Structure formats: structure tokens, C-alpha cells
């Protein structure tokens, strides 16, 4: 019986009940910093992700000893590195790799933490107790050391295995956050109602409880995205991230370990350092706007 | 045979404490409660806040674990069933919750809220589902055009009607109504109560009606059980309880019903004083030395009171 009339009703209610995405958009529009950040970040990402169209990656990775350490010129916009490779090209590909890694880690860790947190919060009792004791244990482990050890012992790791290893240590906090909200949520009668209406537990968790926690999850993921990009860069800088053959912002910044390069060949590492700073700031400003959108009391719009 | 027969129901909550979170004590929220519901009747469960009414209702429907006793529904003991066996009886017992705000998921529209039970138990095409929901929403007195609205767009009374519609969707036999009107404005309370009586006839429902207010359920209950600290102190027909209260606690509850008639106001005040005096002097004949109620003892075929064996 979905008549024209029904469609109109649905449309009417859509206007009265803006989705979270709409609220976020409204909030960003009202916050100049967030809006500028969003535009800047999108421009950066679009350029970075479309770069394979105009950059030949194989050519980029080819070592050319005749052109090492060249200063910026019209041929090499940002000069070349120790292997005579174009820094500008590496910057674009690197941004793409770094962002992909940061985003994947955030999504995988978010999904895993969400599932564990939902289970723990929904069931409570001994299930919660066991899961929380395990997470307590995992949290006291020195994460960074474990990641470094894994990176060292896993032979020829790729972006994929690097993402998995980082994700494995990034979900604890999220699980805890979701769990504590879930514990409060499970006491509410709409959850009890669903139980008495015969809805299976997994459906209650994901289709009743989760939508009420989703804004929290989105806020948390946005804010941790910046951190995860930073973590990748940091690890690569220390030499435990991606190999030099896979350019990332970290591999470029890693050149700054040599005092000579820091002082005299700043074109190699400075653009990457600035870029990551700008990216993290942008994500953070957007994240703040998303956070305000999730809480009616803080909204500017 | 009675529809629901609760025998010596006990629900205890462990209090955990100490380093190993071991059980240090029990909250005896419900401590030996027995009553029967005949098909089609309305049974009132009354008592002050915190006496275990909600816990009793939740134990019957399976939201709380039963510590002891039996919950016989059509002769089958729900208390010992596992989740799978229970599912068969889920359609027959439904609950209306006290808080019309938290009992509806704010993220779902009315259509999705009311269709939830249908989706769990029946395979319907979206068209059939929509028409069933629209019929029901009309039946509970809401505009059928409002099915795409969200709970926050309704008033408390309307929300409670949505909750009732959801509970009715599976054609249940027994409805546990946990203070369904206590969160509503007084002006709306009567409306919802009348409406509940109406649908009781139409759908052939049996109500377990929980309330902390004897005044509210005076007109709708056939029989009433008075609960105090997890036990029954008195049980009888509505007439037995209102006209001939035996237990001191019941008398107190009745004297606490606000009197609208100014002529009787003074009389009521006197009565309240008397009962308070009696509470101090006669306490021992109603409660044993641990302050616990005695077991119910019949004083007429329909009326039982928790007084000491051997009379007062
Ligand atoms: N999940 C629980 N854990 C521990 N104690 C509880 C729990 N639920 C209820 N209680 C206790 O049981 C008693 C009865 O509660 P309840 O049934 O909600 O009372 P009523 O509905 O009559 O106001 C209260 O003292 C309450 O604190
Ligand atoms: Mg209650």
C-alpha cells in the first residue's frame, strides 16, 4: 500500500527528523574552521587519491643517481631525495597510503571494538566481567613495543599486515567506551520490550542498542582517525613502519633523522611534516564539529 | 483452569561485595508470592514503591530470573523453561511498561516499533505489514498517518498507546501492565485506563495490573493483591479490599487515597490518625518478631489476610 501519499508522508517526516549526517553537515556549515578544514581535507584527499592518474608509480620508485638531492625546480616541484626520486610525487602517493592506513585502522579497530563493547555491555554480568578483565590485561601491555616486535618478526610485511597489526592494538579503548554506554542503555525499557517481543539478542544489540550509540561511535572514530594517521607516521619515522619502497608521509619525514638533511635539504621532509600537521588539524576540527552535532546542547546550528 | 498461576514466587538479587565480588547478601525483592489469574479478569497488584511489584511482573514475563517457586501459564511452568521453550509462550504474554519515554526506541519510527513483534513471529509482505500496523494504530486511537513519525513527536499518553499497540500486535492472552498510567498527567490517566478496559473486551485480554495507587485501580480491577516488602499482606475481590480491609497496611493504603469530597475530608483525616495510632500499638499482631509478614490465611472464600495463626 505504498501509495504516493505514503511517500509524501515519509518525505515530510524526513524533514522533521533530520538524520545524524544532516545534523553534522549543518553543524559544520555553521563553524568556519570546520568548513575550511573539510574543504581543505577533501581537496588534499582528492588530489592524493587521483594522483595515480598523472603519476607513474614505477617511474617514481626508480632510482636515478644522476639526480640525487636536487633542490626544487620546475622539473621536480619539491626536489628529489637520496635516490633521485621526485618528492612531490612521493608526497601525493604517501598521503594516499598514510590516509588509507589511518582510515583502515580506525574502521577495523572501530568495528571490532564496537562488537566486543556491545556484547559486553548488552549481556553484562559474567560475560562483561570476563571481557573486561581480558581488556584490562591487554591495556597494560606496552602496545608500541608489541607493534615494533611484530613488524620486526613478520617477514616482508605489507600495508595490509601493517594495518592488521595496528588495528589489533587500537580497539580496547573503543570497546570500553561502548561497553560503559551499553551497560546504561540495557537497563532502559525499550531493550526489555524488544526482549519480550521475541527479538533475538544479536538483533537487539545491532538494530536497537547500536543506533542509540552510533553518534558516540562516529565522534570517537573521527577523533581517533587523526591519531591513527599520526601513529603510522611515527612508527615509520622510527623505522618500524612501512619499508622505504612504499612511500608514506612517515618515510619522507624519516629523512629528518639526519642533521645534514634537516638543515640543508628541508624540501625532502618539510612538506610532508606540514602536510601531516594540516591533515591532523583538519580532522580534529571536523571531529569537534561532529562531536557538537551529537549533543543537542553543544550545537552551534 | 486458571490462565496464570503463580506459586510461592521468589526473586532474590545477590548483593556482591568484597575483593572477589562474592555474594554477601540477598535483596529479597519478591519473597513467596502466590496468586491466580482467571481468563478475562483484571488482577491488581498494589503496594508502595519498592515493594517488588515490577520484579514480580518481570519474573513472570522472563526478564528476571526466578529464584524459587512456579509460574504456571496454562499449566506449564515458565520458571523452569529454557529460552527456546519459552519462545512458544512469548506471543501470549506481553508487557506494557511504566515509562512511556524510555520504552520506545527513539531511533525508530512508529511503523518499525509496532511491526517489531510481527517481524519476529510472522512472515508478512511489507504491504500486509503496513495494513496490519495501520489498523492497529487506528484501533488505539492514533492517526494512521502518524506511522512514520518518531516517538519524540508524541505526548506521553500517545506514546503509551503506541506501547499498547505494540503489545497487542501478537494477540496476547495476558498483559502485564506495569503502572501504565503513573507517568501520565491525571487528565490523561482516565482516558488511557478507559481505553485499556475497552480493548480488554475486544481482544479478550487478562490483565495483571500493577500500581502503587489504590485509587487508580479501584474501578478496573476484579481482584486485588496488596503487596508489602516482597510479600502479600491481603488478597481479595475489589469489594473485599475496599469495603472490608483487614490488614493494617491495607487500611493505611486506603486511607491514603486522596478524598475529593470535602464533606468526607475531615472523616478521612480522623481515620488516618486512628490508623497511625493502631500502627504503633498493634504492630505485633501483623508482623512477626523479624518484622516479616505472616502467611496469607483465608477469612472468606475470596478474601485472605496475612495475620497470625489463631486470629487477632
Ligand atoms: N536488578 C536488581 N538488582 C538488585 N536489586 C533490585 C533489582 N531490581 C529491583 N531490585 C530491588 O528490588 C526491590 C523491588 O523493586 P521493584 O520490583 O522495582 O519495586 P516496585 O516496582 O514495587 O516499585 C527494590 O528494593 C529494588 O531495589
Ligand atoms: Mg515498579
Describe the structure.
The complex is a heterodimer of chains A (about 300) and B (about 300). Chain A is mainly α and about 300 residues long. Chain A has helices spanning about 5-15, 20-30, 30-50, 55-60, 85-125, 125-140, 145-155, 160-170, 170-185, 190-195, 200-240, 250-255, 260-265, 265-295. In chain A, helix 5 packs antiparallel against helix 6 (about 125-140), helix 6 runs antiparallel to helix 9 (about 170-185) and helix 11 (about 200-240) packs antiparallel against helix 14 (about 265-295). Chain A starts with a helix and ends in an 8-residue tail after the last helix. The mean pLDDT of chain A is about 85. Chain B has 11 helices and 12 strands. Chain B has helices at about 55-60, 85-90, 110-120, 125-140, 155-170, 185-205, 215, 240-245, 250-255, 260-280, 285; strands spanning about 5-15, 20-35, 40-45, 70-75, 75, 95, 175-180, 205-210, 225-230, 230-235, 295-300, 305. Chain B starts with a strand and ends in a 7-residue tail after the last strand. The interface of A and B includes residues 12, 189, 198, 199 and 212 of A. Adenosine-5'-diphosphate binds next to strand 2 and helix 1 of chain B.
List the helices and strands and how they pair.
The complex is a heterodimer of chains A (301) and B (312).
Chain A lengths: L3 H13 L3 H10 L2 H19 L6 H5 L25 H37 L1 H16 L2 H11 L5 H10 L3 H14 L3 H8 L4 H38 L10 H5 L5 H6 L1 H28 L8
Chain B lengths: L3 E14 L4 E16 L4 E5 L6 H9 L6 E6 L2 E2 L5 H8 L2 E4 L13 H12 L4 H14 L16 H13 L5 E5 L7 H18 L2 E6 L2 H4 L5 E6 L2 E7 H6 L4 H8 L6 H20 L1 H4 L10 E2 L5 E2 L7
The site of magnesium ion has 4 residues of chain B, from helix 1.
Amino acid at each position: 500500500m505504498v501509495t504516493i501519499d505514503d511517500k509524501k508522508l515519509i518525505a515530510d517526516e524526513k524533514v522533521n527528523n533530520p538524520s545524524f549526517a544532516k545534523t553534522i553537515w549543518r553543524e559544520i556549515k555553521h563553524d568556519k574552521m570546520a568548513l575550511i578544514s573539510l574543504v581543505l581535507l577533501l581537496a588534499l584527499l582528492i588530489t592524493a587519491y587521483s594522483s595515480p592518474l598523472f603519476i607513474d608509480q614505477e617511474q617514481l620508485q626508480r632510482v636515478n643517481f644522476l639526480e640525487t638531492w636536487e633542490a626544487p625546480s620546475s622539473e621536480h616541484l619539491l626536489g628529489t631525495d637520496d635516490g633521485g626520486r621526485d618528492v612531490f610525487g612521493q608526497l601525493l602517493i604517501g598521503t594516499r597510503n598514510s590516509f588509507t592506513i589511518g582510515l583502515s585502522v580506525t574502521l577495523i579497530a572501530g568495528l571490532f571494538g564496537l562488537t566486543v563493547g556491545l556484547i559486553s555491555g548488552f549481556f553484562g554480568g559474567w560475560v562483561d566481567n570476563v571481557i573486561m578483565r581480558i581488556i584490562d590485561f591487554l591495556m597494560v601491555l606496552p602496545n608500541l613495543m608489541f607493534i615494533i616486535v611484530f613488524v620486526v618478526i613478520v617477514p616482508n610485511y605489507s600495508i595490509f599486515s601493517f594495518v592488521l597489526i595496528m588495528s589489533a592494538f587500537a580497539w580496547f579503548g573503543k570497546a570500553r567506551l561502548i561497553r560503559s554506554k551499553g551497560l546504561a542503555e540495557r537497563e532502559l525499557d525499550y531493550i526489555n520490550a524488544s526482549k519480550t517481543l521475541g527479538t533475538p539478542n544479536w538483533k537487539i544489540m545491532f538494530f536497537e542498542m547500536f543506533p542509540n550509540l552510533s553518534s558516540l561511535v562516529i565522534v570517537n572514530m573521527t577523533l581517533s582517525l587523526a591519531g591513527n594517521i599520526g601513529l603510522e607516521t611515527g612508527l615509520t619515522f622510527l623505522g618500524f613502519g612501512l619499508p622505504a619502497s612504499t612511500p608514506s608521509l612517515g618515510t619522507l619525514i624519516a629523512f629528518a633523522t639526519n642533521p645534514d638533511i634537516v638543515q640543508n635539504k628541508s624540501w625532502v621532509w618539510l612538506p610532508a611534516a606540514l602536510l601531516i600537521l594540516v591533515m591532523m588539524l583538519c580532522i580534529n576540527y571536523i571531529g569537534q564539529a561532529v562531536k557538537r552535532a551529537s549533543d543537542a546542547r553543544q550545537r552551534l546550528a | 483452569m486458571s490462565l496464570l498461576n503463580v506459586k510461592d514466587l521468589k526473586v532474590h538479587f545477590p548483593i556482591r561485595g568484597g575483593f572477589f565480588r562474592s555474594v554477601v547478601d540477598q535483596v529479597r525483592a519478591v519473597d513467596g508470592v502466590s496468586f491466580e489469574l482467571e481468563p478475562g479478569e483484571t488482577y491488581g497488584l498494589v503496594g508502595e514503591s519498592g515493594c517488588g511489584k515490577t520484579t514480580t511482573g518481570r519474573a513472570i514475563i522472563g526478564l528476571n530470573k526466578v529464584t524459587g517457586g512456579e509460574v504456571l501459564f496454562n499449566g506449564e511452568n515458565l520458571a523452569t523453561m529454557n529460552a527456546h521453550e519459552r519462545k512458544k509462550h512469548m506471543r501470549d504474554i506481553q508487557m506494557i511498561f511504566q515509562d512511556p519515554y524510555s520504552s520506545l526506541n527513539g531511533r525508530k519510527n512508529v511503523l518499525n516499533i509496532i511491526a517489531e513483534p510481527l517481524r519476529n513471529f510472522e512472515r508478512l509482505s511489507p504491504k500486509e505489514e503496513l495494513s496490519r500496523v495501520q489498523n492497529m494504530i487506528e484501533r488505539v486511537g492514533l492517526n494512521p498517518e502518524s506511522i512514520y513519525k518518531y516517538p519524540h513527536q508524541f505526548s506521553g499518553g500517545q506514546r503509551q498507546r503506541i506501547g499498547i499497540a505494540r503489545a497487542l500486535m501478537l494477540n496476547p492472552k495476558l498483559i502485564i501492565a506495569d503502572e501504565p498510567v503513573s507517568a501520565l498527567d491525571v487528565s490523561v490517566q482516565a482516558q488511557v485506563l478507559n481505553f485499556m478496559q475497552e480493548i480488554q473486551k475486544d481482544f479478550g485480554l487478562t490483565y495483571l495490573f500493577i500500581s502503587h495507587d489504590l485509587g487508580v485501580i479501584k474501578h478496573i480491577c476484579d481482584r486485588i493483591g496488596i503487596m508489602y516488602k516482597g510479600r502479600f499482606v491481603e488478597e481479595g475481590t475489589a469489594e473485599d479490599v475496599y469495603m472490608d480491609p483487614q490488614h493494617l497496611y491495607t487500611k493505611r493504603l486506603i486511607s491514603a487515597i486522596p478524598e475529593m469530597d470535602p464533606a468526607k475530608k475531615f472523616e478521612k483525616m480522623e481515620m488516618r490518625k486512628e490508623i497511625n495510632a493502631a500502627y504503633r500499638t498493634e504492630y505485633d499482631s501483623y508482623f512477626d518478631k523479624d518484622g516479616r509478614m505472616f502467611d496469607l490465611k483465608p477469612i472468606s472464600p475470596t478474601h485472605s489476610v496475612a495475620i497470625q495463626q489463631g486470629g487477632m
